[in-house]
């Protein structure tokens, strides 16, 4: 039986008259990799904050196993004032961390006596190996200047340092709140690969659907103040959730039919039903209550309606002519030329700090270029969703802020909506519309920001990291809207699923002003990159023979399989074939649509097979490289 790491018992939390969740109970066990999913404003981050001890529940208990090592990755990491990067990674109060910190300071100070003493302490504690591990991990995360101050870091740099800090503490359970926010795609894939292969237990909130699908083995959904648990990854959750919704719909239909008949009976004159059994009257009221519960649940399924009209766009969109931009020695664009076509959809990717946001701000004239021209068509009407967030007065009510933008909104079928009606389509109830903007959650502000952009009926949408705060449901609907959008689109995003869904090609900002135009989705680009790297790393036959001939005999022998390794290689081949066959059988079973007996057990077995395959395939590859 799996070891219990964490128990949540009857947890309830509300803000005023707004109930987030009620009597929530679930457990986290060794080996669980749990993703928490819910709509914006329903309490995902609040739940994590309560578990982490940063907030108090109205009632209920959070019980950790005694002595459990817990690591917490917050959405917005904070470090000690004035701390360097290396010091931020050595915040744990342990002898080895204090020794490394002392040694690093002695190096900077140049005090020879202090340096000699700190070296002696490092020797006695084995600090050199730990320091090497810290530096190696930071290098993998793209951090090289370890003496830089943490006070002027970008959001992505701060998140990477916080990730290193958590990993170095070797926790048994990691709590992650939006771990992919502000990270570039390469680091997201590194973290995804690390967490997928690691045996650490996870409890996380994230909107990254590829991340959820590849890392998690359990999904917990908060819906209608309750939780629903699915023993599988994100793809499995989607299937089972749809089945749950269909079952609720069927139950509602049956209840309506029964209530129609029973209501007629209840409306008869009392004497007409004198002597009737009381249980029938009680059953009628029970059915009515159940109908109200289902109606409430269905209301929580309400979706954002993005059926908004776009303005007419002419044949001339924009032309970039010899654009150059630099900040000191840092070059953003170097002689960039491009003619943007009608209805074109471009994704922009690149490492953090390479200039993605600067690029789209130059296009709109927000940031001037150093030289060159942007020739924008007369009919172009930009709609800009900025990663900086909504620029509205926190002291204004939601409805007032939207009314200031427009008195009415026209949707695709020509219907005119008032601001209040329009906000309803973005899941802002009349009560929510009276809230002050400063009291909204991050996700609610993102939804309001999106509404304020789309209500202007733009024909050229520019989206800068739209997935950071939008929930998965809203993201899916935004993708549906963009699929039918009659205009142009540029999107900067680290969300691989989002890019794959909506863009036709990519601008890859490679640094030093270089922009590669790649024809395809992000997944196409990633596959092309892997193939190119594999080709570049493949030695030619002549060079291989020369290297082999020049190698010492001991080294050549070390690259051959031993008898034991040969037997292991043969057994691995057989095991992989058996596991692959079993995995395919479970895939067929899950996709058949029939009721599956012991679904929890089979789902657990599926995750176990996936883990075993990853481990055995990795070992098989290691051995296969030996001749």
From TrEMBL:
Domain of life: Bacteria
Keyword Cell division included in the entry's annotation: no
Domain ABC transporter span(s) in chain numbering: 6-249, 318-536
Gene Ontology biological process terms in this record: regulation of translation; translation
Residue ranges the record marks as coiled coil: none
InterPro entries, per database record: AAA+_ATPase, ABC_tran_C, ABC_tran_Xtn, ABC_transporter-like_ATP-bd, ABC_transporter-like_CS, ABCF_ATPase, P-loop_NTPase, Val-tRNA_synth_C_sf
Region listing for Disordered, in residue ranges: 533-560
Keywords tagged on the record: ATP-binding, Cytoplasm, Hydrolase, Nucleotide-binding, Protein biosynthesis, Repeat, RNA-binding, rRNA-binding, Translation regulation, tRNA-binding
Basic and acidic residues composition-biased segments: 543-560
Record carries keyword Nucleotide-binding: yes
NCBIfam families reported for this sequence: ribo_prot_ABC_F
Family: Belongs to the ABC transporter superfamily. ABCF family. Translational throttle EttA subfamily.
Name of the protein: ABC transporter
Organism this protein belongs to: Muribaculum intestinale
């Amino acid at each position: 039986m799996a070891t219990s790491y964490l128990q949540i018992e009857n947890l309830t939390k509300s803000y005023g008259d707004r109930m987030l969740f009620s009597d929530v109970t679930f457990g986290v066990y060794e080996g669980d990799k749990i993703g928490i999913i819910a709509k914006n404003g329903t309490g995902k981050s609040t739940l994590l904050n309560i578990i982490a001890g940063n907030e108090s529940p109205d009632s209920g208990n959070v019980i950790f196993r005694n002595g459990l090592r817990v690591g917490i990755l917050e959405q917005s990491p904070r470090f000690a004032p004035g701390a360097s990067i290396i010091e931020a990674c050595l915040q744990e109060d342990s002898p080895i961390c204090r020794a490394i910190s002392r040694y690093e300071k002695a190096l900077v100070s140049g005090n020879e006596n202090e340096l000699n003493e700190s070296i002696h302490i490092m020797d006695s504690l084995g600090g050199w190996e730990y320091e090497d591990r810290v530096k190696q991990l930071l290098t993998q995360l793209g951090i090289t200047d370890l003496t830089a101050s943490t006070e002027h870091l970008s959001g992505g740099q701060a998140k990477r340092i916080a990730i290193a800090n958590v990993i170095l503490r070797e926790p048994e359970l990691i709590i992650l709140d939006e771990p992919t926010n502000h990270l570039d795609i390469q680091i997201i894939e590194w973290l995804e690969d690390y967490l997928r292969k690691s045996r650490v237990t996870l409890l996380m909130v994230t909107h990254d659907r590829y991340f959820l699908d590849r890392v998690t083995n359990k999904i917990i959904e908060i819906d209608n103040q309750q939780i629903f648990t699915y023993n599988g990854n994100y793809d499995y959750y989607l299937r089972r959730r749809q089945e749950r919704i269909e079952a609720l719909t069927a139950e509602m239909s049956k209840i309506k039919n029964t209530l129609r008949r029973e209501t007629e009976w209840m409306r008869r004159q009392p004497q007409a039903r004198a002597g009737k059994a009381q249980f029938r009257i009680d059953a009628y009221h029970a059915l009515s209550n159940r109908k109200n519960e289902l109606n409430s649940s269905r209301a929580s399924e309400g979706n954002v309606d993005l059926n908004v009209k776009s303005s007419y766009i002419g044949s001339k969109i924009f032309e970039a002519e010899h654009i150059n931009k630099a900040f000191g020695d840092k070059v953003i664009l170097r002689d960039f030329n491009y003619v943007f076509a009608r209805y074109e959809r471009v994704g922009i990717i690149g490492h953090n700090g390479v200039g993605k946001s600067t690029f789209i701000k130059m296009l709109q004239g927000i940031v001037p270029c150093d030289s060159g021209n942007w020739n924008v068509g007369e009919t172009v009407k930009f709609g800009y969703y900025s990663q900086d967030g909504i620029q509205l007065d926190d002291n204004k009510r939601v409805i007032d802020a939207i009314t200031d933008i427009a008195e009415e909104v026209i949707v695709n079928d020509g219907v005119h909506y008032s601001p209040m009606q329009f906000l309803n389509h973005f899941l802002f109830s009349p009560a929510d519309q009276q809230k002050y903007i400063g009291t909204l959650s991050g996700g609610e502000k993102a939804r309001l920001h999106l509404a304020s952009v789309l209500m202007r009926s733009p024909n050229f949408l520019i989206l800068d990291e739209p997935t950071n705060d939008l929930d998965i449901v809203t993201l899916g609907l935004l993708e549906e809207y963009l699929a039918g959008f009659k205009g142009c689109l540029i999107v900067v995003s680290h969300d691989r699923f989002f890019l794959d869904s909506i863009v036709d090609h990519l601008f890859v900002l490679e640094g030093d002003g270089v922009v590669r135009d790649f024809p395809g989705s992000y997944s196409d680009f990633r596959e092309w990159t892997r193939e190119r790297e594999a080709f570049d790393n493949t030695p030619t036959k002549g060079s291989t023979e020369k290297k082999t001939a020049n190698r010492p005999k001991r080294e050549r022998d070390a690259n051959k399989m031993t008898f034991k390794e040969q037997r292991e290689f043969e057994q691995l081949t057989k095991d992989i074939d058996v596991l692959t066959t079993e995995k395919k059988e479970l895939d067929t079973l899950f996709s058949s649509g029939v009721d599956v007996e012991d679904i929890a057990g089979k789902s657990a077995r599926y995750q176990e097979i996936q883990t075993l395959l990853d481990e055995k395939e990795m070992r098989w590859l290691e051995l296969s490289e030996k001749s």
